[in-house]
Amino acid sequence: xxxxxxxxxxxxxxxxxxxxxxxxxxxxxxxxxxxxxxxxxxxxxxxxxxxxxxxxxxxxxxxxxxxxxxxxxxxxxxxxxxxxxxxxxxxxxxxxxxxxxxxxxxxxxxxxxxxxxxxxxxxxxxxxxxxxxxxxxxxxxxxxxxxxxxxxxxxxxxxxxxxxxxxxxxxxxxxxxxxxxxxxxxxxxxxxxxxxxxxxxxxxxxxxxxxxxxxxxxxxxxxxxxxxxxxxxxxxxxxxxxxxxxxxxxxxxxxxxxxxxxxxxxxxxxxxxxxxxxxxxxxxxxxxxxxxxxxxxxxxxxxxxxxxxxxxxxxxxxxxxxxxxxxxxxxxxxxxxxxxxxxxxxxxxxxxxxxxxxxxxxxxxxxxxxxxxxxxxxxxxxxxxxxxxxxxxxxxxxxxxxxxxxxxxxxxxxxxxxxxxxxxxxxxxxxxxxxxxxxxxxxxxxxxxxxxxxxxxxxxxxxxxxxxxxxxxxxxxxxxxxxxxxxxxxxxxxxxxxxxxxxxxxxxxxxxxxxxxxxxxxxxxxxxxxxxxxxxxxxxxxx
Length: 543
Hints:
Elements: H1 7-29, H2 38-46, H3 48-79, E1 80-81, H4 85-91, H5 100-111, H6 116-125, H7 140-165, H8 168-176, H9 181-192, H10 194-210, H11 213-218, H12 223-233, H13 237-260, E2 280-281, H14 284-315, H15 323-357, H16 360-370, H17 377-403, H18 416-438, H19 443-451, H20 456-485, H21 488-493, H22 501-510, H23 514-542
Parallel strand pairs: 1-2
Helix pairs in contact: 1-13, 1-15, 1-16, 1-17, 3-4, 3-7, 3-10, 3-14, 4-23, 5-7, 5-14, 5-23, 7-10, 8-9, 10-13, 12-13, 13-17, 14-23, 15-16, 15-18, 15-20, 17-18, 18-20, 20-23, 22-23
């Protein structure tokens, strides 16, 4: 007897894909809504060139920086042996726990005129303000530096994996042909790792384009800050949608460049000698140089800011620490927990639907769902608010017509719309984790369960769920941490008088109360360390 068709799962996948794509479609649909607004004409004639220029310079600077730092550290830790390598190979991912806007707050406090560094210099050398020059971190260059030292681990992780897994036999062949270490790197290893490097750089650039806290605090005008200004300061949703579309255009260009950069080149491993070779032992000055190269991004991206945050939290901290801080933490954990639970459940059904359908339709729908991660939070916020607000107003009108009372905004007045925006942004994270783990479960287990009379629901519950338990937890943890750090969508869509740790840190830092912002910032960093500890343990076992 043939098993029943699983059209229900396909319909579910199509519905989820439609909901994920709705915000982007809403943004595009409002580009020409009501004609070209006066606000857009004003922005186009005044600040739009600055938005475009700053965004291009950010992409160029961050892209170059993360590639240099990520590839250098990945090459040293994967292909060489030197004192401290085993620590560096997992510790170099720790900067991912620090949101870029938190790093911006920390270094502003550390490097400002009355900060610890300049104060120490004046006391040590007896300088006055006019006796020396010190660079201002709150500039476009400073923002590029913040992004580089937070996002380089994307390139580091993917490049390191590529260096380890690529055929060691090809490097040995290169050496037999007379190529030294440097020429082997540039002519063999780096070209083979190019797809991984470009993919990591693309992820870093998409995170850069999605950032609001850093560029806003540093006064760098980009499309993200323009969207927020058009929506809240000018009250023009059409102009905000048009700016969101322009920002989305940058993301689409990045994705296309990532695909086109590969061209028709192939990067297959055609030899079976792919076991990682013994690392080249570095001694003397070479070992010291390798340690310094690996230590600089780790110190700047994690150790120093974590230490400074801890010092600020202990010496100053949030004046409202206590019941108010607990309320902020409860809000953050509630949003992150609910989103993580829903994301894992939906991701499990999507991945399982693609497994049992065995057709291209489910896979294409899952790919569409995965594109949500490439859309910046500010674009998603605008795209969600436009249709959901209309739905809210319609529901309120119908409720008043039926029952004679106005219930207010049911969706945007609470956290429902905000959780929807989080799901659009981060469902891809859970789906990727669950799909990759589900693919490792051999189909013979499903066939054996069916031969024993189990239906698909029982197979999922009794066979797959016990196997996927660890992966589901990891997927939920990743979504949880991403939601805890998310700032643009939260700022735009949070209900009235509803703050989280991220918005509290941003609000206090914007008021130049950096010491008070340290408490919430430190809590966000501490939560962000949880998945990185799991990842670091996996890296330490891979060698």
